[in-house]
Amino acid sequence: MEIAVKKKKFTVDDYYSLAEAGIISYDDRLELIHGEIIEMGPHNPPNSVCINRLTMLFASRLVGKAIVSVQLSITLNNYNEPEPDLVLYKHRDDFYEGERSKHENALLVIEVSNTTLKYDRYVKRELYAQASIPEYWIVDVKNQKLERYTLPKNGEFIKKEIFNKKDTVKLSQLDFTVPLIKVFG
């Protein structure tokens, strides 16, 4: 027998109100996906090493060109605020002070995947495409491949490319190339 129940979807404002009330902590590893609060797993060494490599690579070469945001949330719409591993935002001297990080300012979103590959490939990719993120990367740590999604249109990415450890990837929004050997080690 199927029983109909009504779920309460949380908005981004609800989500922050829960944190302000102390019901959830700003330090908790959570993200808001489709109005539901999702608990994220702990960082494992392969992922954290890759995130650190990406951070150093981008931060050292994009000073004054883009803002490198590491494991901070990005507001996509009223019901979705994921916490990607890295986001490159359009450069602003004030670093978007007083504003939540919004999808309109993102140049690139990166998820580093090991145990979350299917989730990043299907759930997160759809969210980022619907938000018209210009470029989305999934760094597949286990297989040492990079999936690059570009050209968002009608809630989907039109173009998908797969790169191997020996390849170099050029960011579509910036004059910047990434040798993947430096990402995977």
Break the fold down into its secondary structure elements and pairings:
Blueprint: H1 12-20, E1 30-33, E2 36-39, H2 45-61, E3 66-70, E4 86-90, E5 106-113, H3 117-130, E6 135-140, E7 145-153, E8 156-164, E9 168-170, E10 177-179, H4 180-184
Parallel strand pairs: 5-6
Antiparallel strand pairs: 1-2, 3-4, 4-5, 6-7, 7-8, 9-10
Describe the structure in your own words.
This protein is of the alpha+beta class and 185 residues long. The chain has helices at residues 12-20, 45-61, 117-130, 180-184, and strands at residues 30-33, 36-39, 66-70, 86-90, 106-113, 135-140, 145-153, 156-164, 168-170, 177-179. It is globular and about 50 Å long. It is 24% helix and 30% strand. The model has no long low-confidence stretch (mean pLDDT 94). The longest helix is centred in the first third of the chain and has 17 residues, at 45-61. The strands form 3 sheets. Strands 3-4-5-6-7-8 form a 6-stranded mixed sheet, sandwiched between helices.
Q: What's the total number of strands?
A: 10
Give the overall average pLDDT: 94
Helix content: 10-25%
Distance from N terminus to C terminus (CA atoms, Å) equals 53 Å
Radius of gyration: 17 Å
Largest beta-sheet characterization = 6 strands, mixed
Annotation field: number of helices: 4
Uncertain spans? none
How do the strands of the widest beta sheet line up side by side? Answer: 3-4-5-6-7-8
Shape: globular
Secondary-structure element sequence?
HEEHEEEHEEEEEH
Strand coverage percent:
25-35%
Helical/strand content category: alpha+beta
